[in-house]
Each structure stands twice: as structure tokens, then as C-alpha cells.
Design goal:
heterodimer; A: 205 residues; alpha/beta; Rossmann fold; 7-stranded mixed β-sheet; 7 strands; 14% strand; B: 402 residues; 2 domains; 5-stranded mixed β-sheet; 13 helices
Chain lengths: 205, 402
Amino acid sequence: MKTTRYEVLPGPEHFLPPAAASMGIRLPDPGQAHIHGRIVPEEEAMEAAARQFLSAKVPTIFPGPLVLWAWNEKAAQKAKAVRELYETIKECVTPAQRPMLIPMPDYRPKYPKINPEIEINPNHPNLTIWHNKIDTCMFVGVHCHQANLSLKIIRGGTNCYTIAMCAQAGHEDAMLSFRDATAEKILRLAEWVKKLKGSVKPPEE
Amino acid sequence: MATSSVIGKKNKMGQTYTDPWYMMHEAPRTPSFFTGSEVIKEAIRRASCDVMIAYPITPQSEAAALIGELFVEGYVGDYFRGESEFAVMSECAGAAFGGARVFTTTAGPGTMRAMENFPMWAGARLPIQMIVTCRGINSPLSIQPDTLEISYLLNTGMLVWHAETAQDFFDWILIGYLVAEEPDVHLPLALCCDGFFVTHTKDVVQLTPADMCLPPYDPYRSPVPCMDMECPPVRMMRDPFVMKSNYISYATHASWQQEVWAAVERSRKHTIRWLDGLIEVDNGDADILIVSSGTAVSQGREAKALLEEEGIDVGIVKIKTLRPWPGEEIREATKHAKHIIVPEFNIIGWLAREIRATIPNSDRVFAGPHVGGGMTMPPEIIAADIKALLGIKTAALAGRGS
């Protein structure tokens, strides 16, 4: 039987897509990242992530509780870096593009449904993606289990390009993932966005 | 595992928090003549364990009692007996939800009684370590070795390792925490052994220095929030997910399960590094391979020696981890084998089923010999089955006929 290597790509993929780890996708080692499941040097992923932000109609950052709450000094620094990345994206895109910063403040299931204009929930992230027509997003400060849950559900039901800025080992279920995130690493991504400003074709209206 | 900032500092017992790789691979070892139960105690002495909870059941009771001594000495943070195995495993969950490094031991009917908790532990991403000293589970009662209970653990979402020797036990208890607590894994570990054969026999075990211990568990690296009563997984039985009948709830639950199994997959990388592979192969070029786990591997080694005296070349494949399942490794190790013999200490043959489902040309697998209920497995019966496969006549081993 001929098999092809699994790639972590924008969906909608399946009624119930597989977890990428179960399809043989492995996490990067320190100093590395992955793009679509392929292990790459971190700097290559920085450039690719910056290009995604600059070419998206609605580039969005989803900060989670690990950076939304100042539970330690590092978290506070990361929160400032996330804000700076968001401001940088806003400065670097065209007026037709609509960057967003939508928090995932906690993981409480909220029924009958959340307000998708102001928050995202890991149990039904597609509501926020669909409502705001988000085509590229980055998770940062979300606990790993909840991030993987959301990223896989997004892959299943939307065509959104997902990026993970993970403080631990990274996420196979994102299309592009960094690991060992720090405030400095987030700011380095902002630098890449600035560096590529004007050199990336904006989305067609 | 806590940040490297604690390395070199001392705990209240005067032990030094030591870099785990140095402690397990480079630190001097002292040979000691111990039972498996005593080895469990010595491993936990070095494991910076916060909480140990157990309920008496043979053959794990001695280990649980010995860890009580460690508690009195001050090596274990808290220690108590639950009301039953079900209560013990629930209490272990509570302690782990609260951010503690947790250890427990159980066996046979105790494992079965507590079963509801194990998928819950895995779903809640609790890196509890549970020693399972396998024994009979069915009526009529048997306290003797039988590995049937392992088969019930295989689909819980827990990591399941099967130790062959007391040395495995010592090393794997410590390594078990290192793998299970990785943030991309963060799953419970069932570290199994064959009761009595390992727990109640003495063996020479190379121990790491008693004044070195693992760094403490760092719950802030957990992939789920620690003790957040408003969010799953702690918030289990209110509206998420069981009380809602809609597609989103079902899809979330299904994705949650997938993430647990993804974590089992992620454990491969760490386990291979720490255990030096998921399997161990001896004389893998032989046409006849004995593939097994636990003490059946030891008996296989004896059978191999017997057969070699008769000029029959046999290899051994020791399976160390059942979850993660070393499918690729087994396919590679057995690709040239003509006969694959799978001896097991249970009459069901669950390991042979797993191997058959893994390899091409599965009719090469001979499921057996099987013993159960506490029977020993003389190497002669493994050798006899191999000779029978080769068409060599042997005398009946347990009969008196001519």
C-alpha cells in the first residue's frame, strides 16, 4: 500500500480530523520549529509566520490565560510583547486588512454560546473564527492541552492558518509552531513582521 | 520537572536535587541484594515524591508498607491508606490535581476495582505513577502471578510499561516520572511487573546514591490548569461535556480523547531517550525469535540457552513499553524471522494479539506457551514449543505416559 506523509495544512480537513501526533508528526527540539509538520530552523519559521500575518485578511492573535494574567514577571513581559506584536502587525498591514486581538481568558465551557466578537473558547473555537472571518491566527499563552484541542478543531472545520507560540514543547496540531516561547522570541517575530513590511503581497479584496 | 534552578540544592532530608541524566547514567551505583518491594522503596526514596496513597492487596502490600517507613523517615511528603482501591485512585487524582507528585501501588482485583479512575487520570493529564504488581483477577481467587490485568490497562490512555527485573523496576520508577511529567506527555504511568516473581524474590540491583534525588515536580508546566475548579478537566460533572447533547460537545470530547492518545505518541521520543529504545533485541538475526515482556522474557532467555545447547539458534525481543506500543520497532526486529514465539503469563494471549496486529505475515506468530493462575513457566516448555514448530519431537513435560 502506498502511503503519503501527513501534512498539517489548513482545512476544513474532516468531520473529525486526527491529532497530528497520531499521524507521525513529531515536535521540534530546542532551536527548531515546525511548518506543516516539517522540522525547520526557528528563524525559517519566524519568516514564514511573519509572511502569514502580512498576507492574511484578518491576522489574529489569541492570547490565553498564561499571558493574560500577571501571575509572574515573565507572564507580564510576554503580555507586553504580545501587545507589541499586535501593534506591529497593525502598523505593517494595509487598511483593507483587519488585525484582531481576541483573548481566550479561560477554558470554561460557555453555553448556549460565547460572544465570538470578544472571546474565543477552546471547546468551540470555530465560532470565533467563522464570525470574524479569521484566516490566520496565533495562539500564545494557552495551556498545551487546550491549545491542541482548539488547533485540531480549527483544522477540522475552518480554513484558518494556525500558528502556535508555545512556552513548552510546541504543537503539532498547528500549521506552524514555535517552542520555548519567551518575550524576546515574540518580539523577534514582531521584528520579522517589520522587516517584511511591503514585501509581501496583501490579500485580494 | 522543576526548572534547573533547584539542581545542586538540598531537600529537607539532606539529599541533593541532581540532574536526572547524571543521576541515572553517570552517578556511581552501589550493588544491593534486595527484593522487588525493597527496590520500590529505594526508588521512591530518590523520587522526591509528595504523596503516596495505597490500599492493602497482595502482592503490593509490602511495597506500600515499606514506603510508609519512608514517610516516617521524612522522604515522602504525605502517606495514607484509602478506603478501597477506588478511593485510593480518586485520592491520587485529587493530590495530582493539586500539583503533587503522586505514587501508588496496586494489584489484581485492586486494579480492576479502581479501573474507572484510569481513563479519568489520563483524560485529566495527571502524571501519577502506579505500580501494578500483577496477579490473578478472576474467581476462584488467586494471589499468584498472572498478567491478564495489564490487558485492561492498555486502552485507558495511560502509559504502560512492563518491567522484567528488579533493576528495571528501580530505574524505570525514576525514569517514569521524567517521561510522564514532560509537558507534551503529562500522562499517568502504569509500571507493571509480574507479582511475586519480581516483588518477592531477591536480586542484585545497582542503586544510585541515596543522597541524590530527582528535582521536584513543577505543576506550572502542566498542559492543563492546576486545580481550576471552573474549567475542565477538574470541572468534570457539571455542564461539560456529558450534560450537553450537541455536536460541539461531542466533537470536543472526541478531540480531547485524541489529544490524550497524541500525548501517548509524544512519549515515544522521551521514552526512547531514557530507556534506550522501546524494545531490546538479542541475536535478532535468528530465524526464531522469542518476543515477550516482563518475566516471560527471562524465561525466554533460559529457553534460548537450552536450545543453543542443541544447536538451535534463537533470538530475544524484549518489549519494554506496551503504551506507547513499539510497532515500528517490532516490525523491524521481526522482519526476517520465520517463527515468532510469544510466551505469556496469562491464558488469553493479549500480547500475541497485539504483535499479530502489528506485523506482516502474522501467521508467523505462535501464541504461547501460556500459563496462568500463578503457574511458573519452565523454560523447557518454551523450548518444547519451539522444537514442535520445527518438527522436532520432544517428550511430554508434565505427563507420565510412555
